[in-house]
Structures are given as structure tokens and as C-alpha cells.
């Protein structure tokens, strides 16, 4: 690997570094959500599940079945009351590279999730930023869902799609380095929205109970950085914790462990409740399973 690529390799990990329950954002662990308890069309799902503010607005597209963790460390402490996500002292990195490098396969970020019931996946949200830009200059994106870790030879791609439309929404949260000025607005975090349906847009991706992985990438713009799950420290807000996790990054030499958790949300419909929700996907009743 040449000097220039080594320089890039040294930078990609450090980085240029949903409206609802703030307390749930600040302290929660990842987990699969049982449909019998969580799939309530309305308020009870939002009360019980460890949702972020972004989950509420997506609830009409399906129940929240996996929340990998939040990232707000300083609620309301930024400019005009914006929320802040501060990097930790031991992992003073704003994010990991998730933007395609020229025409190569890398960089990509992958992370693990579980489903506790038969579920039709209809929507995924991931979170990323492009420094200094008023809005991301990315031109497209792509996502895969795997039967196992993308680094394993026996893992199978269950879903793969290129998206020409960007479909991103500003979260109202800014990412800053450890002990940085809380008014720093150079890293606005965006929700990257992924529609997960069949190729003809007629059905969700049906999964059995088990463990799966998402794997995604943005294309275009100058940079793209996937953020980390953060835990605030109520005793000292300036000492948040970067949460350890299973995420991987596709680098020039292959998949490598990031040793952090990345925030993302997975929404879906259970098989026994899908017949009551087919209108959410615009399906003819005859196609309901």
C-alpha cells in the first residue's frame, strides 16, 4: 500500500471527526423487540421500545423491531437548542468512512441486528454526516442485508439495492469531537432513509427469527462518515462513552472490525399482523401473506 493510501487508511477510522423520548435516546441498550409486546399501532410501542426520536415519524411504515442505540450526549446544548453528539475521550473519533472511494467497493460499514419473530422488513434508517456541507452532496447510496457477517464466506446476500434518490433528513443533532465547542455546527447528522421492499416495490423482505447484518455506503460528495452509538455520562456530560459493538468496515484490504456500535433502526411487519397492515405498502389484499 502506497504512502497516500496509508494516509487515507490512517484517517478513515478517525473521521473528519427519532421526535419523542429524549430519555430513551440517552440511555438504552440495543435489542430486538418482540411483536406481541411492541407491535402496537400507536403510543404503546413508542412508550415501551427504546426508540429514538426518528422512530416515531417512521412508525406508520411498520413497527420498530431493532434499535442499535442512540447518539445524543448533550440534549439541547447546541446552537438554538440543537442536540449534540460528542465523541468520547478514549475514542475521539467523529465517525468512520462510509463513502465509496473512487470506483472501488470500499468504503462500507456493516452492523448486526436480530429479529425475534417472523418479520417483513420495510424500512431501515442509518445515520451519517458530511462535514461543512449545509446538506450532504452525496448523489446515490446502496445497501445490502446479509444472512450473516459480510466477512464470512457462508453469508448470503438477502437484499441488495442501489438507490438513485438520496432521501436524507437532518436530525437536528451535530457531531463534535471530545471537549469541542458545543456550538460547532460543521458535522450535521443526517438520517439516511432506506426503503426495504422487493425489487418490484410490492412486498417487504421477509426474515425468520435470527441474526442478520446490514451493510451500506454513500456515493458522491466529498466525504461521508457513519457515526457511533454513544452513552452520556449523567455525572459528567463531557465524558460520554463510545459503545463497543460488532460493526465492520470494508477497507482496501477487506472487512475489518471497528469495535464500536453504529446507530441504526429497523422497521417491519409481523406475518400475523401483516394482513391488517397491507395498505401501508399499497398491496392488493390477494398478495397479503
Summarize this structure briefly.
Helices cover 12% and strands 35% of the residues.
What can you see in these coordinates?
Helix content is 12%, strand content 35%. The protein has 289 residues and is mainly beta. The N terminus and C terminus are likely disordered. The N and C termini lie far apart (51 Å). Strands 1, 2, 3, 4, 6, 9, 10, 11, 13 and 18 form a ten-stranded mixed β-sheet that branches. It contains six helices and 18 strands. It has one domain.
What is the overall shape? globular
Largest beta-sheet details: 10 strands, mixed
**SS content category:** mainly beta
How much strand content do the residues show? 25-35%
Q: Number of helical segments? A: 6
Instruction: Determine the fraction of residues in helical runs and give it as a percent range.
Output: 10-25%
- As for the number of domains, it is 1
Q: Report the strand count.
A: 18
> Poorly predicted ranges (pLDDT <50, ≥5 residues)?
1-30, 32-52, 284-289
Query: What is the C-alpha radius of gyration, as a whole number of Å?
Result: 18 Å
Order of helices and strands: HHEHHHEEEEEEEEEEEEEEEEEH
